[in-house]
Amino acid sequence: MAKKRIVVFASGRGSNAEALYKATKDGAINGEFVGAVCDKPDAPFVLTAKSWNIPVIVADRGSFATQADFEAYITERIAPLRADLICLAGFMRILSGRFIKPYENRIINIHPALLPSFKGLHGQKQAFDAGVKIAGCTVHFVVPDMDAGPIIVQDTVPVLEEDTADTLAARILTKEHPAYIKAVSLFCDDKLEVAGNKVRIKA
User: Fold this and answer.
1) For the chain, is the Cβ count within 10 Å smaller at the N or the C terminus?
2) Is this prediction's pTM over 0.85?
3) CB atoms < 10 A from the CB of 6, how many?
4) Residue 15 in marked binding region
5) Confidence of residue 169 (pLDDT cuts 50, 70, 90)
């Protein structure tokens, strides 16, 4: 089976992106990174992605008059990369339906909470403040509604009595990398089937 072509989007350190990249090199994912997108010119991820010797597209949202212009700039530059899959790995921008539609069921995101609870920013802190006893992360397909797409993989961690929001976030992070690698691996092996808002994992 041919390797899937992956473009990764990130805004900060890109730790999830780096974990995915290493998994492609280790053979855990039947894919290859063919490009990267970052919306913050000074983000550490820019240098990390450049070290992979792939095209790196930097699109500072503040340099564009509208969201449509911002997305059009990215769309034009990733089109030649012929992405089979786009991975959002800490990309802190909402993408419009206009951008998502051509890549329907081909954009994956990871969220540091157990969706459908605690959508949006700071999912770990939301969970901590709510007093839940179990927290975790979710890998899902991206749809125009925020954090509402079909769920591919979830993993959980206990919330301990002595936890703070920060220690809980750190524990969730230990589950994020394996969960994202598993989800992307399933995609690249053509094991995912989307029916409505549910994902079936084929044998």
Assistant:
1) C
2) yes
3) 27
4) yes
5) very high
